[in-house]
Design a protein that fits this description.
Helices cover about 70% and strands about 0% of the residues. It contains six helices and no strands. The longest helix has about 35 residues. The two termini are about 35 Å apart.
Amino acid sequence: MTEAERFLAYCAKVPSLKTRLRSVLLKITFDDRVAVFKDTFSTLTIGIATFYSESLKLFLNLVLFVGNYLNRANQNAPTTYAFKLSLLKSLDKVKGNEQNYSLLHALQELMNDEFQQHSLLAELNIISAAAKIDIAAIKNEFNSIKGETTSVSNWILQ
């Protein structure tokens, strides 16, 4: 027998080789996988907390105020107390007098000029990062780790 064949024959004699190899792989990759979870949950936690920030509230109030101001010329339009968040996507479509100048540009200038202490752009970047997280993939990975640790634990207790 060649050396490779002897090695395979020896491996075949090891009891529960597949389970042992999986447990070693779990031990090697566990810390990295947990670190990914920590980073992901940290991003989600910060993103959720950002929804309650003063800058975001101020910007949304500003959008509402400007919308009411623009609609005041229409006598039949009542004062609005809310708007659909999908409206935010169309702020750049409301054009101004200058070429390539929109309502979104005006709101951005207003935020920069009048409310400099608020860091809306940084907070929007945090929310954007949190929105990109795939919750289903996180659940699958968590269930995978849970299943692997349970399998190894059960094998050890036998």
